[in-house]
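=== RUN LOG ===
request id: a7f3
mode: sequence -> structure
chains: 1
length: 245
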Amino acid sequence: MGAIQWLRSLVFVTNIYAMMVIMGILFLPWAIFSRTGALTACKTWCWWVRWTARWMVGLRTEVRGTPPRDEVLVVAKHQSFLDIILIFASVPAGKFIMKRELMWAPVIGQYGLRIGCVPVNRGKRSLAIKKMVEDVARGTQQPGQLIIYPQGTRIAPGVKAPYKIGSGVLYEELGQDCVPVATNVGVFWARKGILRKPGLAVVEFLPRIASGKPKEVFMTELEDRVETESNRLMREAGFDPETAG
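=== RESULT ===
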């Protein structure tokens, strides 16, 4: 069964990246002239991934809570590419803070910039955040829901990593409410590798944290909520993060 699931996963992974290229080309004329075209292309591809994951590898997906539709800061647990897909598919106009090197990735980089993602240099996040805050203040930033991963990278289930201050700086400077997001997707779709496991992968939009709290208070509340609820979702999926490793 393990070998069969790995082969099914290989077909699935090949399928989604091939379709990324195909959709990227098909939607390109619209995306060049309209951000709506780029957003539609990305959302269509997200739908394709979720639909094919269900029947190709037995991986169902579910979005819980209330995805925001207004201008807010979305701060999410990041375990694999799947949480990116589920969060983006759930909000009207998501835009990510992304690693600058992704700008040069085929399709992902070009569409990421077109929908309003903000490239960030590794090791220079404070400068990038400062510039982004300035862009928002000048009204040059694309409208939508700004999505940031507070730990800065994908974190495997059961692994502990600190929350970086960038989320707190954005929360304080932008003056927007924050919507935390918890997930268990890493239990089924790992940070690296081909294997995709069957089951129910969940992202959950948690109650928002109102703007105006001191940065340190916000960071403590954010980490407590996201980690507690992510641990609950992982246990629901049959994985105990406290005993892992």
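=== NOTES ===
The beta strands are 59-65, 73-76, 94-99, 118-120, 145-148, 178-183, 199-205.
The radius of gyration is 18 Å.
=== END ===
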